[in-house]
């Protein structure tokens, strides 16, 4: 499965930035050893249901350190039999179609 998620704690820097809290969450994901990717809006992580959800839970906790509330947006692509390699393969298939268009 691939999970795309975004975390946002209620306590932000005076300028509204949540980058420090998000960096804590991204570090949890990267330290997990699971395939992952981070963009300006979401972090994607790939693996088995239980391992991915455990990492998301830990990332939410890390982002929420010092905050009374954390918002979580989560989208999952659950495709039995395709638990690995899809994080990049899905993008490669789209790019191949674009090259052939």
From TrEMBL:
Family annotation (Gene3D superfamilies): 3.30.70.930
InterPro entries: MTH1187/YkoF-like (IPR029756), Thiamine_BP (IPR002767), UPF0045_domain (IPR051614)
Top-rank taxon, per record: Bacteria
Domain spans labelled Thiamine-binding protein: 3-95
Pfam hit, one: Thiamine_BP
Family membership: Belongs to the UPF0045 family.
Name the record gives this protein: Thiamine-binding protein
Lineage, uppermost ranks: Bacteria, Bacillati, Actinomycetota, Actinomycetes, Pseudonocardiales
């Amino acid at each position: 499965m691939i999970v795309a998620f975004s975390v946002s704690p209620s306590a932000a820097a005076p300028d509204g930035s949540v980058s420090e809290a998000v960096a804590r969450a991204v570090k949890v994901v990267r330290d997990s050893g699971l395939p992952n990717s981070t963009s300006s809006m979401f972090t994607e992580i790939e693996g088995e249901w239980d391992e991915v959800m455990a990492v998301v839970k830990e990332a939410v906790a890390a982002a929420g350190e010092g905050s009374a509330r954390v918002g979580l947006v989560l989208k999952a692509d659950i495709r039995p039999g395709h638990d690995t390699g899809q994080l990049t393969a899905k993008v490669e298939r789209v790019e191949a179609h674009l090259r052939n268009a």
